[in-house]
Structure formats: structure tokens, C-alpha cells
Specification:
By secondary structure, the protein is an alpha/beta fold. A hairpin with a 2-residue loop joins β4 and β5.
Length: 151
């Protein structure tokens, strides 16, 4: 499952394309692609998906960090209506934090793509985030996107 804001949309599409082109194919869940299910039963659908996926990959951009910390301005409200992934970032973030606490502060499923680690990002995410080693890498907009495995 990918979670991202508007400024991470292009990155998430490229990651999704790369994962889906792998052999065997890697399933990727993006909320916008499941629009009819999200609108019919929002929280139930997101909760079910969150429980079923193997990994949650937040695309950590400035917009993502600002959004989860309530630092966004009113200009961002328009993108909330245009993009379901942006609209439910805070809800997914709260699910990640709840799971982290429920597991006695042990992270099992949140994976940060290599190349997105910097001081600003690290101070805003749980301390036990598992970084991933790449088993197959592809350069993408200055960021290395990889098929990820836990270290």
C-alpha cells in the first residue's frame, strides 16, 4: 500500500509502475484506483486494506510531512477533493502509529524507500522504522526506487 500527498503523486505512479512490471508481479494498492470502494465505505475499506497488505510505503515528501503535522494551507484543500490518497493521509498515518504502539513500538510493515531518509523526515516518523535494502534498483527523479526487503 502506498500512501502519499499531491506532491508525491508522480513518484508513487512511477513506483507503482515499476512494481507492477516485476516478474512475478507485485500488487500495489493506491486508494484513487479503488475510488468506488472508498466512497461506498471509507473507513471500513481502508481498515480492511491496511490489515491485508504486507507493507505500507509512505512517500515522504515535504507535503506529506506538512499534512500530517497540520502545516498545510488552504490552497491544499482543493487537492483533498481531487485525490483520495491525499485526503486520507492522516487516517493512514494514524493507523500506522496505532499499529506501531500496539506492537510495543516494534515496526513490522512500514517501509521507507531508499533515498528519502533525511533529518526532517526522521524526526517526524516513529523511531523504529525499518529501512530497506534494495535487491533491484531503478533511478527515478533523483531517488532510488527498489524492490524492497527488510534488513
Amino acid at each position: 500500500m502506498l500512501t502519499f500527498t499531491k506532491d508525491g503523486e508522480d513518484i508513487s505512479k512511477n513506483i507503482c509502475r515499476i512494481f507492477r512490471e516485476q516478474n512475478p508481479k507485485i500488487g500495489v494498492l493506491i486508494l484513487q484506483e479503488q475510488e468506488k470502494f472508498v466512497y461506498s465505505r471509507v473507513e471500513e475499506f481502508i481498515d480492511d486494506c491496511f490489515k491485508q497488505v504486507n507493507y505500507i510505503i509512505p512517500i515522504l515528501t515535504t507535503g506529506y510531512i506538512n499534512h500530517i503535522n497540520n502545516l498545510t494551507n488552504t490552497d491544499d484543500e482543493e487537492s483533498l477533493f481531487n485525490n483520495l490518497d491525499h485526503k486520507y493521509v492522516k487516517y493512514l498515518y494514524s493507523l500506522m502509529c496505532f499499529e506501531y504502539c500496539k506492537n510495543n513500538c516494534h515496526n513490522n510493515r512500514i517501509r521507507i524507500p531508499h533515498g528519502t531518509r533525511n533529518e526532517m523526515v526522521i524526526t517526524h516518523m516513529p523511531t523504529a522504522i525499518h529501512y530497506c535494502k534494495a535487491i533491484q534498483s531503478t533511478p527515478l527523479n533523483g531517488m532510488e526506487v527498489a524492490l524492497l526487503l527488510p534488513r
